[in-house]
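Q: Hi! First time doing this. I have a protein sequence and I read that you can turn it into a structure. Is that right? Here it is:
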Amino acid sequence: MARASQKTVAITGATGFVGSRMLDLIIENGYRARALTRRRQDDRRDVTWVRGALDDKDSLTQLCSGADHVLHIAGVVNAPDLAGFEAGNVKGTLAVVEAAKQAGTTRFVHVSSLAATQPQLSIYGETKAKAEKIVATSGLDWTILRPPAVYGPGDGELLELFKMARLGFVTLPPDADGRLSIIHVQDLCRALLVLLPEQEDLTARIFEVDDGKPGGWTQDGFAKAIGSAMGKRIATLGIPKALLHVGAFADRLVRRDKAKLTADRVSYFCHDDWTIDPQRQLPPQLWQPQIDTLQGLKDTAQWYRQNDWM
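A: Yes, that's right. Below is the predicted 3D structure, encoded as structure tokens:
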């Protein structure tokens, strides 16, 4: 890919799982970056760190000032209540959009989620859908990307599945034949890189990306692929929805705000189709997934071991 003539990207979420890898890719491809952060970060070439947060208007103004593109990755995937999701996903997105408009930055790429396609299932999905509407009515040159489940080295969301696979089993939602799409974090970042420049065919559109597996994975098949990555032949166990609610209550008692299984996620997990819409795929001449999922899962498992996450 041609280098980007030192254009500047304002990026939120740059210290997170996806955002940190995206920041690396931006710099590797010749962009400068203005990156939002809550904490002091080490100096990096072509990166200007902006101390602040989504609820800090002044920091967002500083972030977007002089930027050619805004890439909004930051969001809340887990919160104890509606207010937490609204603050991160709705109010936060509105604040970034307003800062971009004030700065005169026209190009806006927003990272949403497949959860936005089923807003009735979870507060998370509902607030991501609201955020999409904010972006779509902003008057900016916008594109929205909806990733499915994202995995890769450094991911904490799917770590629990790898830990279970190490023990020889993986618990599943009630419908083991339910389907899901997935994507490796590096392939997701490559898709976002393609979307940064202004391109008429990509403006005011919503895209969905995955690993290229036709029809996605069954829940059972994906669990067994994780087992294979761990060098294990595993058993899979479907959990009734009622028991998942009990588990969510217990997880909240034990891990409190760090709970992974929450009441909001139970309905989301039990939905039987989290595959992308083939009609919303990126044009294949612009982007195609490059990482084979079985190899990607093995690399992820190896990273977990090397970094003592398991």
